Amino acid sequence: MVKTKRRATPEHVAIIMDGNGRWAQARGKPRLFGHHAGAKRVREIVEACPEQGVKYLTIFAFSTENWKRTQAEVSGLMMLFKRYLTSETKRLVESGVRVRFIGDRIRLDDALVTLMDELELLTCDNDLVHLTVALNYGGRDEVARATKRLCREVSAGRVDPEEVDAETLAKFLDTYVLPDPDLVIRTSGEARISNFLLWQSAYSEYEFVETLWPDFSRDEFARVLANFGSRERRFGAVLG
Ligand code: IPE
Ligand code: IPE
Ligand code: MG
Question: Is residue 119 part of a domain?
Fold first, then answer.
């Protein structure tokens, strides 16, 4: 059967939250001021998901390449993540949001990883919206880590290399429990993926919006979602 899909709302939306630094610069403030403003937006967009019919939201918070920024910015961001997770936990638990993290935790500090583990555990029975936060995440790094785990299974004799296909590898990705994103949004006018969900977004629709992330409102989110409804997705097939 030819798999095609036309759906009014995307089930899974992924967002590259970009433009915090420029937002701050435009106001003559340090970049971290923009990151704080950006973090405040997250709640609004998460809360908009159930009313918009979006079940899965995945947000790019920190990439494997973002370590190249100044030490002050990186440590400021790590502090912000810790503060944010601490202050949002209660609200997330009570509002039915299931939180997951993707990315490599190995380079993150213990206190942050503990907060991430706790939040995943505390929200594991929630099902209203599935929020996935990509933290120290890179698509290539994820595929490399998945390959390493798969190779271990092969060496242990538990996986036959002849049987390995795309579906096998996908089971080793950080996102193995999530559907692929239907729509990827990037704010701030940049039209690139920057190593986000490379494997998973093979057939996603893309929306690049000019708005800087700290200004990305619930209304603009709704407009982007409405635009998605008018697109025809073919998945490589010819529609009759
Ligand atoms: C996105 O905003 C947030 C992170 C990458 C952590 P930026 O910090 O990249 O903002 P711009 O692109 O410099 O404006
Ligand atoms: C992508 O934004 C990463 C996040 C939004 C967390 P960047 O600002 O790091 O991407 P580039 O450097 O413009 O490609
Ligand atoms: Mg940027």
Answer: yes
What is the span of the domain harbouring residue 24? 12-138+180-226
Whether the pTM exceeds 0.90: the reply is yes
Q: Which residue has the higher pLDDT, 12 or 6?
A: 12
Query: How far away, in angstroms, is 19 Cα from ligand 3 center?
Result: 5
Reading the block at residue 84, the tokens are: 């944010």
- The CATH number linked to 121 is 3.40.1180.10
- Known catalytic membership, residue 110: no
Over the stretch 57-93, which tens digit does the pLDDT of each residue have?
A: 999 999 999 999 999 999 999 999 999 999 999 999 9
- Tally of structural domains, the chain: 1
Residue 152's Cα: distance from chain center in Å? 27
18 in catalytic set = yes
Give the residue carrying structure tokens 């973002």: 66
The DSSP result for 114-176, as a single string, is HHHHHHHHHTTT--SEEEEEEEEE-HHHHHHHHHHHHHHHHHTTSS-GGG--HHHHHTTSTTT
pLDDT at 5: 55
Q: What share of the chain in percent tops pLDDT 90? A: 91
Whether 17 is in the pocket of ligand 2, judged by its Cβ within 6 Å, is yes
Model pLDDT for residues 107-138, shown as the tens digit of each residue: 999 999 999 999 999 999 999 999 999 999 99
User: For ligand 1, is residue 211 a contact (CB within 6 Å)?
Assistant: no
Return all residues near 148 (Cβ < 8 A) that are at least 6 apart.
none
- Residue 144 belongs to some domain of the structure: no
